Amino acid sequence: MPLTTRTPLADPAWTGRVFWSLTALVVLWPLLVLAEFKPWVLFSPESLKPTLRFLGDFVPPKVEPQFLLLVARETWRTVAMATAGIALAIVFGIPLALVSVRSLSQSALRGRMDRLPAVVRLMVRWVLIVLRSVPELIWALVFVRVVGLGPTAGVFAIALTYTGMLGKVYGDILESSDVQPTQALLRNGSGRLQAFAYALLPQSAAELTSYTVYRWECAIRSSAVLGFVGAGGLGQLMDGSMKMFSGSEVSTILLVFVALVAFADQVSAWLRKALA
Amino acid sequence: MKLDLSGCSCSHPAARPGAPGALQGINLQVAHGEQLAVIGPSGAGKTTLLQVMACALPPASGHLHVEGVDPWLVDRSSLQRLRRRLFLAPQVPPLPPRQRVVTSVLAGRLPDMGLWASLKSLVYPQELDAADAALAQFDLAEKLFERVDRLSGGERQRVGLARLLVSSAELLLVDEPLSALDPERGRQALQTLTRAARDRNATLVATLHHVDMALAHFPRIVGLREGGLVFDLPTAEVTPAVLRDLYASHPHELDGAAPASAPNLTIAEPPPVAMQCR
Questions:
Q1: Does any CB of chain B come closer than 8 Å to the CB of residue A101?
Q2: Residue B35 — left, alpha, or beta (φ > 0 → left; ψ -120 to 50 → alpha)?
Q3: What is the nearest CA distance from B165 to chain A, expressed in angstroms?
């Protein structure tokens, strides 16, 4: 393009950036006011004293053999609950993610997806939204009424919510990888699942694995919360200790959580290295 | 496979409305088992022409007939069955970086395999000999179990062509197979491609920037410029005057050098777009 008169160069994106930054500020301020965001309250003397007393109770953690045995049993139950829930979520999440991924569409090869596949994809996205918009705590309360107190309710609760999360994020990870290898296979007549296994999966295997392990870690944490509503495991034990104001027991249980999360982190790092 | 394009016009799916189409009123007949090269300056619509032939892009107007059938008038499963019988090798080899070469090559067999067989092949490669033989034709046999991201740009391009060799397609559409190869490797690659097409009696259409290579290996040359068909001649009738006319506005591309804008295959690819027209 010939330039006859040279105007000074200006970044055309600048006004947009300024506008959106200001908009973000204008929107955020009322949110902070609405949320009663006053961090200084934490450090007022009347709230500081009971907090420090409870925290002081944490040292030393309780290490009586009988209690440790109980903690070990409940830890095993928590890990089992999280693992079973995640396993179910993977079983249901993968097919839902595969259906929702746009780059595996055969009709979209020509530029625009057909009406029916587009509607099906939208519906699957909605199902995933509904599944993960209900917190696992609510699902657990529902299932505790259906199957009674115990880990089964927790497993179902984790499975439902995490199906929504895994399905959505698996879909997003798969869609954000390069589409050329997948499209090339589909254009040469491969099936959609074949294109997934030979083009999409090798590109995103490491991300998918590390996200799954991270979610397993989240499931361990959330199974602790579920224990508070009677789904068993470490959470139920912690609920009891909290009600007794037994800081030393709580700190032992929290240390177990830290260990579990650190373990999950190690597993994830190792898997990512193996798949990178 | 027999191809028949009549009055085909087509524009890039991402093109601005009102922009001139990438292809304008192309009439072209390709007989069963024929081999032809498509040449022309960058932006002439060579890649779009291949994509129309590969039933990847529907023509905006005009008709495409493959074996006498209009692929855009039949239902989707018939279209997909038709796609199984053709192979389009894009200019940038579409190989996932973290895949092993053997898997990338055997992906060319996917249309002939059931889902179960293809999953089994992921666990243990089922046709190792076929992959090895295809790679050996491009001097890459020792890279069989390497990972794709350990290969150079030229090696990747040859792996992409090895994938074409293991496929059983009857219509081979190859986009710029030499863009990352040195002249000697390029000659070898074209010889392998044309011989493979002859052996299996497949139709071969290749776009080429290297005019001398096209003239040396193909019996029929099609010249494209700005989306229009300039000439369609047997190689013997392609005179320097015809070529000068084709490259009138891009004389520097005529000496066989790839244009400066040819993607460097060793660096990261640009963000994925729906189509790449070149």
A1: no
A2: beta
A3: 13
CA distances (Å), origin B120, targets A1, A94, A192, A197: 55, 19, 16, 11
Cβ pair B111:A276 closer than 8 A = no
User: pTM, whole model, 2 decimals?
Assistant: 0.79
| Dist. CA A48–CA A42, nearest whole Å | 7
Tell me which of A109 and B83 has the higher pLDDT: B83
Specify whether B228 is located in the same domain as B157.
Answer: no
Number of folded domains that form chain B: 2
- The CATH number that applies at residue A156 is 1.10.3720.10
Phi-psi label, residue B106: left if phi above 0, alpha if psi -120 to 50, beta otherwise: alpha
Asked, for residue A189, whether it belongs to a domain, the answer is: yes
| B90 found inside a domain | no
- The verdict on A141 touching B (C-beta cutoff 8 Å) is no
| Interval A134-163: pLDDT, tens | 988 888 888 888 888 888 888 999 999 999
Per-residue confidence (pLDDT) for residue A4, from 0 to 100: 59
- The C-alpha of A114 sits at a distance from chain B's nearest C-alpha, in angstroms, of 10
Residue where a domain stops, chosen among B122, B142, B168? B168
- CA angle, B210 as apex, B209 and B216 as ends, to 5°? 135
Q: What is the mean pLDDT of residues A206-233?
A: 86
ipTM, two decimals, is 0.83
B96 pLDDT exceeds 80? yes
- Domain residues for the domain of B12 are 1-85+169-278
Retrieve residue B259's tokens: 């244009």
Contact A107 B76 (CB under 8 A): yes
Res B218: pLDDT:
94
Average pLDDT over residues B27-51: 91
Q: A39 pLDDT band (50/70/90 cuts)?
A: confident
Q: Can you read off the two tokens belonging to residue B90?
A: 């894009």
The residue count of chain A comes to: 276
What share of chain B in percent tops pLDDT 90? 47
**Same domain (yes/no): B181, B268:** yes
CATH number at residue B59: 3.40.50.300
CB contacts, 8 Å: B118 with chain A: 194, 197-198
Looking at B55-64, B117-126, B249-258, B261-270, which range is the least confident one?
Answer: B261-270
The size of chain B, in residues, is 278
Residue type, A35: A
Cα distance between residue A79 and residue B130, in whole Å: 46
Residue to substitute from B73, B80, B147, B166, interface A, most A β-carbons within 10 A: B80
* Cα dihedral sign, B157-B158-B163-B169: positive
Note whether B88 contacts A187, CB cutoff 8 Å: yes
Examine residue B272 and state whether it is found in any structural domain, yes or no: yes
Which among B93, B194, B99, B180 is positioned nearest to B144, based on CA atoms? B99
- In a domain, residue A54? The reply is no
Residue A1: predicted pLDDT: 52
Is residue A6 included in any domain, yes or no?
no
